[in-house]
Amino acid sequence: DIQMTQSPSSLSASVGDRVSITCRASQTMSSFINWYQFKPGKAPRLLIHAASSLESGVPIRFSGSGSGTDFILIINDLQREDFATYYCQQTYSEPWTFGQGTKVEI
Amino acid sequence: QVQVQESGPGLVKPSGTLSLTCTVSGGSISTSNWWSWVRQSPGKGLEWIGEIYHSGSTNYNPSLKSRVTISVDKSNNQFFLKLNSVTAADTAIYYCARRTVTLRNWYFNLWGRGTLVTVSS
Questions:
Q1: Is residue B46 a contact partner of residue B107, using CB atoms and an 8 Å limit?
Q2: In chain B, pLDDT over 70 holds for what percent of residues?
């Protein structure tokens, strides 16, 4: 299985901050990586697919980049509704696997 | 607007069978998408369980394959998860989700809110 290592596991930030979350894959995978936002009691939300493509309806303050084994999710101008847990996921090969998550806290 | 929603017992006894239903509303299950089950537990994080196509084709996570069955009922726009021989380690929030396939990538772009299943006597 492809292992996805996310860092940091948690971070504290303030409204208006720029936040970056990294994800490293155990093998190269082109751009087969997606990013999700999880909030308790709510349906998870796809933010970024194919490493850098913004999902329809997602604010442009979210962006993704990277290829090969190293990927980054950036949130510019952090808003209150962005405090959540973020996960990367690889869809390069089965079984699809996720990172351990990054909790963004106030 | 297409939605998916999980349903099923919230408590299962050890060694029993966990059975969940995912109902697709606002659209047909018979589209060019795969329909997945994913679970989230404190111990193992997010884990993809498996998926099914409306034709009945399935893919399973090898780590669970011996205990999992995913099936579909196209007439009722539902798909199902059965996980047998459960233990406390199977306690988790279970999500159903849609995996969309494009030329560039595939991704889970529709999720349910999840349902908590606890394995306990």
A1: no
A2: 100
| Pairwise CB contact (< 8 Å): B104 & A31 | yes
Distance CA B37, CA B69 (A): 11
Contact assessment for residue B37 and residue B70, using Cβ atoms and an 8 Å cutoff: yes
Give the best residue of B107, B111, B115, B116 to mutate against chain A (max A CB count within 10 A): B107
Strand partners, A73: A21, A64
Tell me: the pLDDT tens digits for B23-58?
A: 999 999 988 899 999 999 988 899 999 999 999 999
Euclidean distance between CA atoms A89 and B3, whole angstroms: 22
Q: What is the dihedral of CA A34, A101, A79, A20, to 10 degrees?
A: -70
